[in-house]
Amino acid sequence: MVGKRTIYFTYMIETKFSEFVYDEKDIFDLIMSDNQITIHNMLIDKTINFDPNLELINIPELKVHVPAPNNQTIEEFDEIKQQNWFMPDYYKTFDIAQFVLDQCKTDAELQRAGQELIMYQDRNLFMLLRYLKYLVDTMRKNNIVWGVGRGSSVSSYVLYKIGIHRIDSLFYDLDIADFLR
Q1: CA 97, CA 35: separation in Å to the nearest integer?
Q2: Helix 126-141 crosses helix 96-103 at what angle (to 10 degrees)?
Q3: Cα–Cα distance, 168 to 112 (Å, whole number)
Q4: Strands 56-59, 62-65: parallel, antiparallel or unpaired by DSSP?
Q5: Fewest Cβ atoms closer than 10 Å to its Cβ: which of 76, 123, 143, 166?
Q6: Number of H helices, E strands in the chain
Q7: Is 12 exposed, middle or buried (0-12, 13-18, 19+ CB in 10 A)?
Q8: Which SS3 state, helix, strand or coil, does residue 42 take?
Q9: Reading across the β-sheet that carries 56-59, which strands appear in turn?
Q10: How many whole angstroms separate alpha carbon 121 and alpha carbon 118?
Q11: Among 2-6, 15-19, 26-30, 32-36, the least confident range
Q12: Residue 28, phi then psi, degrees to nearest 5
């Protein structure tokens, strides 16, 4: 019958990546609860009975993902997870470099921001910057107050321009190397 699948769960375990594999009772309790269920990236045991050509199994309002293979390294797992940011698609393709440069008013600001953006790009951190922009926009939209700045992050002029902190590292002559080591 289209739209129905039999799923067999064995037991709940914690993987080496600190993610949980849920058993039949856990899933049943979630489905039968009166609450709205929206669960992303839930892992299930590899003994599940399903069509191997499918990437995920849909239960109404529930997405169940197959866990990473046991032979996957933590570095491989981390690389895959870094590609899956939970933010609106708009931010996933947002030109964060142009946004930061547009916030600059002087040549000194442009030079500092450009230098830092190259360092972020070299470290493949543009998705992180996009996510931080989404986070700041969401906090502002919902009137959530966050701190002025902490630790070495205040030495990043790019983070200042995105709005993560309120310390102008250019004004205080803070070295970006203190943050991006």
Answers
A1: 41
A2: 60
A3: 11
A4: antiparallel
A5: 143
A6: 7, 5
A7: middle
A8: strand
A9: 13-14, 20-22, 39-44, 62-65, 56-59
A10: 5
A11: 2-6
A12: -60, -45
Between the two ends of the chain, the Cα-to-Cα distance in Å is 56
List the alpha helices (DSSP H) in the chain.
24-32, 74-81, 89-92, 96-103, 107-122, 126-141, 157-162
Among residues 172, 142, 143, the alpha carbon closest in space to that of 155 is found at 172
Contact 153, 179 (CB under 8 A): yes
- Measure the CA–CA gap between 10 and 62, rounded to whole angstroms: 18
Residue corresponding to tokens 């002087």: 106
Residue 13 has pLDDT above 80, yes or no: no
pLDDT of 165 > 90? The answer is: yes
Distance of CA 51 to the CA centre of its chain: 29
Helices 107-122 & 126-141, crossing angle to 10 degrees? 120
- β-strand partners of 43: 21, 65
DSSP 69: P
Give 61-98 pLDDT, tens digit per residue: 344 444 555 677 888 877 777 777 888 889 999 999 99
